[in-house]
Amino acid sequence: MNFTAESVWTDCLSFIKDNIKPQAYKTWFEPIKPVKLSGEALTIQVPSKFFYEWLEEHYIKLLRVALVRQLGNEAKLIYDVKMENNYSSNRPQIVKIPSSNRDPLKPQRLTVPLESGKRELRNPFIIPGLQKVKIESQLNANYSFANFIEGDSNRLARSAGMAVANKPGGTSFNPLLIYGGVGLGKTHLSHSIGVDIKDKYPDKTVLYISSEKFTQQFIDSVKSNTRNDFIHFYQMIDVLIIDDVQFLSGKAGTQDVFFHIFNHLHQNGKQVILTSDKAPVDMQDIEQRLLSRFKWGLSAELQAPDYETRIAILQNKLYRDGVEMPEDIVEYIAKNIKSNVRELEGVLISMIAQASFNRKEFSIDLAKQIVDKFVKNTKKEVSIDYIQKEVSKYFDMDVATLQSKTRKRHIVQARQLAMYFAKRLTKTSLASIGNQIGQRDHATVLHACKTVDNLTETDKQFRKYVDDLTKKLTF
Ligand code: ADP
Ligand code: MG
C-alpha cells in the first residue's frame, strides 16, 4: 500500500468529521495540514501552540483512534507548530508523540529544535477553515485623530497613539496604556488608533471592547463550556483595544484569561491598547503579573485640558455641528467647565438643544443656567475619609483623635460634625458611617445628626462651624 501523509490524513479526517460537530471540525481540523509520513509517524502542521494544546486537550482520543485505524497500533502523531515570529526562535519546538504503549492522554513530551527554514509568519486568517471569519471592529469612525484636539494635556498620549497606528505591534509602545480621569478622552483616543489602523491596514483585525463586555463574554463562555473558543477568538486579533481595564480589578478569572491572551498576542507581535482611569501603580486588585505586563510598553496620561485646548475643543465641535456661537459664550463655558471634556460637550449640546427648542438666541444667561446645572449635577460624592480629614484639619486635630473614645467636648463635637456631614453628603447608611467613624453604632450617628441640627439653631459659633465646613466640603 502506498500511504502518503495526505492520504492518511484525508482518511483520518473523514473519520473525525463523522464524530464531532461540524463547527468544531471546521475550526479545529480544517486548518491542519499533513506534512510528513515516515513509518507510522504522521506529522501534522498546526497554526499555533495554542491550537496544538487545544487538540491535545480535547481531541487526542479521537485523533488516536483515527490514526490507529490508518496506521495500526504503532501510530504516532507529531505536531509541527508554526511559530509566529522571532520571539520563539530560541525556543525548542515542542513535539508530542502519543502512541499505543503510552497513555494517550499523557503523551510523552519530546523537544526537538526547530528547523530554521520552517519558521514563518502566519496570519490565522489565511488558515482555510477560518478564512471567512470576519470580526467587526466595533469602532466609532467619529472618534478619529482628526477630531481629537491636541493640547499639552494629551500630547504624549496622542502622539504615542499615532505612532502605534502607523506601526501596530512594531513600536515599543506595546501595550499602550492610556490613563486619565473621567471624560478626558480615553475612549475617543483608543478608537482613533483603531480607526486609523483600519484605514492604513484594512486587512488587520482590530477589535475594540470594553472590559465589562470582555468580562461578560468570558463568564458566558465558562457557563457554556466554550472557554477555549473564547480564548482562541481573542488570540486571532491583530490589534486588541480594551477600554477601562480598571473594571477587571478583583475579577481573578477574567484577569487570568486576559493574561494568557495578552501573552499570546504580545509574543506574536500583535498590538494591545488599554485604557484605565488610573496609572498602573494605583490600580488595585489587579494581579501583579498583569500589572507588570501593563508596564512593559508605554503608560501615557491624559490630563485635564488647559483653557486654550478647551476653547479649541468647543470650536471644533461647533464647527462640526455647523453651529455658530458668540465667542464670549464659548469663553464662558471654557472658563467654567475645567476638568471633563464630556461635560464641556454636554454644555454645548444642551445649549444648542435649548436654543433651538425654545427658539432662543444663545446668551450668557442661558450658558450660566446650563453650566450651573452641570456643575451641580456632576459634583462628586465626597468620601467619609475625606470628611474626617477635613473636619479634623478644621479643628486642628488628627483623625485618630477625632475617632477616639474621649468625651472631651470639642472632640465629641468634631466627631458629631463628621457624622453629620457623612450623613448629609454621602449615601452611606448610618451603621456604616458609625463603623467608619470610630466604630460607633447607628444610634450614635443618629444622635450626632440631631445634636448638630439642634446646635446649629441655637449656637451661633456652632453654626459657623457648619457653614465653614459646608463650604470646604462642597467647594
Ligand atoms: P473617557 O473615556 O476618558 O471617559 P471619552 O473618550 O468618552 O472620555 O471622551 C468624552 C468626550 O469628550 C467624547 O465625546 C470625546 O469625543 C470628547 N473629547 C475628549 N477629549 C477630546 C479632545 N482632545 N478633542 C476632542 N474631543 C475630545
Ligand atoms: Mg471611556
Structural write-up:
The protein is of the alpha/beta class. Helices cover 51% and strands 11% of the residues. The protein has helices at residues 5-19, 22-28, 49-58, 60-71, 155-166, 186-200, 211-223, 227-235, 252-267, 288-294, 307-321, 327-336, 341-357, 364-377, 384-394, 399-403, 409-425, 430-436, 442-458, 460-474, and strands spanning 33-38, 41-46, 76-81, 93-97, 108-112, 176-180, 206-210, 239-243, 271-276, 298-302. The strands form three sheets. It has a five-stranded parallel sheet, sandwiched between helices. Strands 1-2-3 form a three-stranded mixed sheet. A two-stranded antiparallel sheet has the order 4-5. The protein starts with a helix and ends with a helix. The site of adenosine-5'-diphosphate has 16 residues, from α6 and α13.
What's a quick, concise take on this entry?
Belongs to the DnaA family. With 475 residues, this protein is α/β, with parallel strands linked by helices.
Series of H and E elements: HHEEHHEEEHEHEHHEHEHEHHHHHHHHHH
Number of strands: 10
Q: What is the gyration radius calculated from CA atoms?
A: 31 Å
Strand order of the largest sheet: 7-8-9-6-10
Shape: elongated
Q: Which fold does the CATH topology of the largest domain refer to?
A: Rossmann fold
Distance between the termini: 89 Å
Structural class: alpha/beta
- Would you identify the regions where 5 or more consecutive residues have pLDDT less than 50? 84-132
Note the total helix count: 20
The assigned CATH architecture of the largest domain is: 3-Layer(aba) Sandwich
Largest sheet report: 5 strands, parallel
